[in-house]
Amino acid sequence: MILSPVEWVQAVGTGAGFLTALAALFTVRQLRDQRRTQFKPDLVVDDTLFRVYASGNAPESTLPQVVVAGRMPDLNLLSRGSLFLRLRNVGIGTAKDTGITLTFDAQAFAEQIAALDPELGKSFETSKRLVLTDNDGGTWGAVREETVRLGALAADATSPGAEVHFPFAYVRMFATCLMALRSALAPASTEDWAVPPLEITVTYRDLEDVIHRKRLLAHVELSHLMGPRERREGEPEWSEIGGGGIEVRDA
Fold first, then answer.
1. Concatenated DSSP letters for 124-156?
2. For residue 90, which of 204, 194, 246 has the smallest C-alpha distance?
3. DSSP code of residue 197
4. Measured between alpha carbons, how far is 178 from 184 in angstroms, rounded to an integer?
5. What DSSP element (H or E) covers 201?
6. Is the dihedral angle over the CA atoms 179, 185, 190, 191 positive or is it negative?
7. What are the CA-CA distances from residue 31 to residues 15, 38, 60, 86, 121 (Å)?
8. Using CA atoms, how far apart are residues 11 and 16, in angstroms rounded to an integer?
9. Which long-range contacts (CB under 8 A, 24 or more apart) does 233-237 make?
10. Tens of pLDDT along 138-162?
11. Which of 118, 119, 185, 194 is most buried when burial is the number of CB atoms within 10 A of its CB?
């Protein structure tokens, strides 16, 4: 088929228009990708150190308090203590609708406690949603999974970030495990002793409303722990008896 000069001009014009449209589409996508790169929030959970305290005035059945290094224990916190992680936005641009879900293997925790102290281990009952126990002079229950809604989290690499507390059930079982470990503690160190990790899922949206999700594990590692001893005169009400660190890694 032979095209006339007019048809050739029309064909070339149509092709040029198509190429122009493709170039425009490519430019728009490129600009959008650049915007996402330039304004991409990035949420991280920091490692931290913790200390273990015991009260010399409280009954022997009182659980030790586990707190982030630099904080002091407080019985009014109902054994939740001040054990928390910090969530920070080290990227560029606000993270919207930020949420964090915390869960852990309560059954493995209960089995670890039972291995140290069979009676304490029997006091725990776990299900898919709850942890129940009747020790420490009463019965209490707590969910094994907690979700915290933080809303918008501005980008600031120098900010201390938002405090995300460990679930009450985790802290309670960890403190019970420490109490059992103290009673069974031999002169050997606590090397190779660890509790189940805390499972962390962080979700948020960027400025383009793209949903991001991160799965992390917070490994709680005990470095040292003192066995039971009598309180000495002049000692403070709360004495430090141990400590360790929490290392956050990708799941």
1. EEE-SSEEEE--TTS-EEEESEEEEEEEEE---
2. 204
3. P
4. 10
5. strand 198-205
6. negative
7. 24, 10, 65, 33, 59
8. 9
9. 235/56, 237/55, 237/56, 237/57
10. 667 788 889 999 999 999 878 888 9
11. 185
Structure tokens at 136: 């420490």
144: amino acid identity, one letter: R
**What's the one-letter identity of residue 227?**
G
Q: How far apart are CA 195 and CA 217, in angstroms?
A: 12
**Res. 41: pLDDT tops 80:** yes
DSSP per residue, 36-84: HHHT---EEE--EEEEEEEESSS-TTSPPEEEETT----GGGTT-TT-E
Give the integer Cα–Cα distance in Å for 114 and 111: 5
Among left, alpha and beta (phi > 0; psi -120 to 50; other), residue 151 is: left
Distance CA 210, CA 228 (A): 53
Q: What is the domain partition of the chain in residue ranges?
A: 1-38, 39-250
Task: Tell me the one-letter amino acid at 124.
Answer: F
Closest by Cα among 173, 158, 154 to 46: 158
- Residue 61: phi, psi to the nearest 5? -75, -5
CB 152 within 8 A of CB 207: no
Distance CA 250, CA 200 (A): 9
In degrees, to the nearest 5, what angle opens at C-alpha 44 toward C-alphas 208 and 93? 30
Rounded CA-CA distance 203/214 in Å is 7
Q: How far apart are CA 181 and CA 193, in angstroms?
A: 10
Q: Distance (Å, rounded) from C-alpha 96 to C-alpha 20?
A: 36
Q: What is the mean pLDDT of residues 181-204?
A: 77
